[in-house]
Amino acid sequence: MSEVKPTNAVQQISVTLLDQHYQIPCPDEERELLLEAVRLLNQQLEVARSRGKLLSRERATLMVAVNLAADLQRTRQTLQAREHDLQLVEQRLQQLVDRAKGSE
């Protein structure tokens, strides 16, 4: 008889964005991440609202989404650059190790 492993449980998380309530399905292990993301999104939406411009809910959300996507892209580019730098260091270290082995 085969053993059945339980799948990751998904629960509905209740969140509020711009005074609207939403139910979002979320795996248990990602619950805190989702709630942190909602807090960040709410903060950014409130900043957009507080700038005094009368923005529709959709426009404010879109503007914040674009800004967060740009932040994500900048972070990815920074990570790629650091990974590249690490690869160069690794190559240089390997060259030094190879040179040291050759002089033994």
Short account of what is shown:
The chain is 63% helix and 15% strand. It contains 2 helices and 2 strands. The protein has 104 residues and is an alpha+beta fold.
Percent helix among the residues?
55-70%
Give the topology string: H per helix, E per strand. EEHH
CATH arch. level architecture = 2-Layer Sandwich
Distance between the termini: 59 Å
Strand content: 15-25%
Instruction: Give the low-pLDDT segments.
Output: none
Name the CATH class. Alpha Beta
Q: What would the average pLDDT be, to the nearest integer?
A: 88
- How would you sum up the global shape? elongated
Number of strands: 2
What characterizes the major β-sheet?
Answer: 2 strands, antiparallel
CATH level 3 topology? Double Stranded RNA Binding Domain
Q: Number of DSSP helices?
A: 2
InterPro entries: Cell_div_ZapA-like, Cell_div_ZapA-like_sf, Cell_div_ZapA_N
Main location: cytoplasm
Subunit structure: Homodimer. Interacts with FtsZ.
Keywords: Cell cycle, Cell division, Coiled coil, Cytoplasm, Septation
